[in-house]
Amino acid sequence: MDLLRGLVRLVEATGLAQMTWGQAGMIGVGLVLVALAVGKRYEPNLLLPIGFGAILANVPLAGVGGPEGILGLLYRAGVETGLFPLLVFVGVGAMTDFGPLLAQPVTALLGAAAQVGIFGTLLGALALGQALGLGFTLQDAAAIGIIGGADGPTAIFLATRLSPRLLGAVAVSAYAYMALVPLIQPPIMRLLTTPRERAVPMAQLRPVSRRERIVFPLVVVGLCGLLLPAAIPLVGMLMLGNLLRETGVVERLAHAAQNELINVVTLFLGLAVGSRLAADLFLRGETLVVLGLGAVAFALGTAAGVLMGKAMRAVGLPVNPLIGAAGVSAVPMAARVVNRVGLEADPHNALLMHAMGPNVAGVLGSAVAAGVLLALLG
Fold this sequence. Notes:
Blueprint: H1 2-12, H2 15-18, H3 21-40, H4 44-57, H5 70-79, H6 83-95, H7 99-103, H8 108-113, H9 116-132, H10 138-145, H11 152-162, H12 167-179, H13 181-192, H14 195-198, H15 210-227, H16 232-247, H17 251-275, H18 279-282, H19 285-314, H20 333-345, H21 352-377
Helix pairs in contact: 3-4, 4-12, 4-17, 5-17, 6-11, 6-16, 6-17, 9-10, 9-19, 10-11, 11-12, 11-21, 12-19, 13-19, 13-20, 15-16, 16-17, 20-21
């Protein structure tokens, strides 16, 4: 009899006996993310740790995603404090070539237009939250809207300060849509352009001098500090990384920022975001609303960029409207998608470097938008 009771207790202590349907479903979601990363290579550096973190966080009784678990500790130390996003921005800056933007400054307008998704979704979140009785505040709506910038670090940074209770949903949504750029953007781009517009050729970009490359981050930080200090944490770290790259006198630091720093932080950030996919945290009504609004924000940003490209072409600027879709700051995935869709229309018309202009402008645009929201609502 004692042996039987012992066996019963042993069975009850297994993860299988304690697993809920919600946990099983979220483990399935984690497996799907891992499959997309491995099989489809959709942003594997993001989706693989996020998916595996989701699996770990939903193992019953393990407590991996809890306050004292390894993923919970990573979340508290790097995400809640905003540290990981800022360190990622140093690495992004060190890997970013602002040359295409400097060679064709007018493409900054495309990066600015893509931020329409942020502010449009902010208004939509307020209206929908009121209609569904979710009680979204203006700060909550701003945190949801920033998903439209397709910039995970910026979304985390802003949500940490304006809406900590939605931080998990915002982080997961932002990174999920960044990874799914190859699926989401092409249908919108094709819907808003004609085959002839998609085949518009663009002239080769002019060479950009080393002096221009070095002066640019200093000027950006100076202007941002004078006009929008709230954006300095993000913009400053981005420009620091870029200055390390462009000066050419600190190669060890530049190499570390491009490789060891951003690789380690991306791994930890992905696992921490995955911990928010625990069933008890994720399977809530407001989380599903945030995911839906995030998709709307991303679609609006893509559409606004393409439409701005069409408008610029209508007034005589030699712009292929497709590159407007790269105005969302999913660097460099959005630019690669633009290039792929452009080559479908004309196999000889490579748009990658042209699309990188609005793409890096989008990074700055989303950081500035976050600074504006922080200044107004923080």
